[in-house]
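Appendix B, example 12.
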Amino acid sequence: MAKPKGESRGLAFLTQARPAAVQHLLKFFGESARHLDPKTRFLISIVTKVISNSQRGLRQYVRRALREGASADEILDAVLCAYPCAGLTKVVDAVDVILDLGLPEFENLTVPIEPSSAGEGDPGPVGDPGPVGDPGPVGDDRSAGDGGWHAVADAGELPPGGSLQVSAGARDIALFRIGDELFAIGNVCPHAGGSLAEGSLEDHGVVCPLHAWKFDVRSGECAGMKGVSVQTYSVRVGEQDKIEVRLP
């Protein structure tokens, strides 16, 4: 069967093998976007293609969105909007696909990154993402007045080899006891938002229960993912046998 121009072989086959079903689906898709202008419709399609990890569809709709007047910034925003459902890996992979297209709209779009305390030219580790609408940078979930030591749990709640999810100020924190040592890190995996307190301990590493990303509880660094980490916190057993976490 010849492949029609601009149409997938699978869709062409289904149109002939199951014409009623395909016609129904295509009509539904048309009706569901009937009141949207083409640019908005294609930007929404980019979000869905990132979530479904469809590289062919992403290439198709990026070009269509550009033809309908979308800017490169709008397309990047659409890709980033997929993060809550897609996770970091799919978002980064989608940007790779777009860059591989060699489209002139994406040339010279990057901005220089100012050096930070993490090292010259290094934007610092990716930490726990703040809530939607948080004006602070990724990894900065500080709230005014949160600094200092916070009692978060009774020491008896955390046995050796155990983990515990706690809150300190506005922070979501995972506690771990390995032998006689206590460790505290940001609880939210930067990949897809998994709870690290629910992960499994392997030596001094905790494995995220969602996609098996592994973080060192001592440094917060992600194994095999350079530049990706979660926040670490000082932790101690204070008065009245309370576990305390220090916020910066």
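Residues 33-106 form a domain with the AhpD-like fold (CATH 1.20.1290.10). Strands lie at 148-154, 163-168, 171-178, 181-186, 200-202, 205-207, 214-216, 232-237, 242-247.
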